[in-house]
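Worked Example 4.2. Consider the chain below.
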Amino acid sequence: MKVQVQSKKGLKTTLSIIVDKAEIKKKLENRLLELQTQIDLKGFRKGKVPPLVIKNQFGKAIYGEVIDKVLKESTTKAIQDKKLKVAGQPKIDLKTFGEGKDLNFELQLDLLPEIKLKNIENYKALDYSVKVGKDVLDERLENLSKEYKTFEDKKIDIKSELGDQVIFNYQATADNKEFEGGKGEGVAIELGKDLFLQGFDKQLIGVKKNEKKTVTSTLPQNHPKKELANKKAIFECEILNVKSPKKNKPDDDFAKKLGAKNLADLSEKIKNQISDQYNMALNAITKKEILDQLEKNHTVEVPQNLVDNELKSIPNNPNSNKDENSVQSVKKRIKLGLILNEYGETNKIKVTEDEIKTEIQKQVKSMPGQEKFVFEYYQKNPSATQHLQSSIYEEKIIKFFKSKINLVKKELTIKEAEKLIKSFNENNKAKATPAIKKNESKPAKSKKISKK
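Applying the procedure from the previous section yields the following structure tokens:
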């Protein structure tokens, strides 16, 4: 194979590639021998069809298959031998081809720019954290004590009221007939929550332990049995017990009920939980401060084909390629992606399989009941796994920057954090951080081919 640089202008390079006809002939003969063991033709035993017969019958298709494979292999080798970093899809322009001829084609490439990395040690950024005051902590503890209620028995002659818990058995009928699922034992409802059937709770206000109470209610529209949907039902209830809510005292015993060691441990967990609610947004602000300095201090020529491809991918915006704001925004994202990738490669930052698995596990834990769906999603969507890998890679590079630059810590109150986050979101509605991928000097699987 002979490879020559035909032309070079900016980031565009054209290679002239010639593959000797003898090499193509050899590959064609090898393919015919492979097919001999697979093809079953009438009049011949399987595996005994002469190569010449196979060639006469399937010659054009086999030659096309061989040429396609040669194009892919020679394209890959040419890019690797020339140590080129390709941006996007290479294009192939066939010049001469055909059985008994050399394969002559041009490979048109858009290359990634050479990036000269600048010193980042003088960069400055604010590293925000949230201060959780005693008032906020006390309010959260108070809300928890209300949310995780406990109930204690009322005296037998005291009637139920709103907020009480009523425990009862019931037997329901519709059209004077009992129905499947119309019986319940030891059912407990909190009056006022209206979680059983709409309007059911109110009818149990004023009942006492050991009383019997008839409740009339309408069965739900989505009842499993269609013939019972929206039907009026009569519930004969036997009141087993009436309990009043007991106010939880935020102490060590209450903390243990919530899985903490003691009240101090619970308070620390709440502080961390509140901080985590703001950290992601605050980290995004710090990240932008770093990225803005990177973009300002590096001069990078952005490959036009990457810009065009990303503009086409913008949803619901057919005129995006004419919108100067969209073009500049896309160019900035690509430029930052290229810079970050160069820093990542230069500093040997990599993403391991274990890191990807750990991140997927985090997502699984955050979606209880949908674990199988999450796992299957990543198994069936390699592009989703690639996107996840790119996000982890980017965050590792940002973490590297934070370890090198002048990172100034700044503590905010919750109100200050909310104000800062709101302002940041309003100013960056249409902007996105760069999505980066590892550079790969591999040709695309599908190529645009023009025959001359």
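The chain is about 45% helix and 20% strand. The first helix runs from residue 21 to 36. Compare this with Example 4.1 before moving on.
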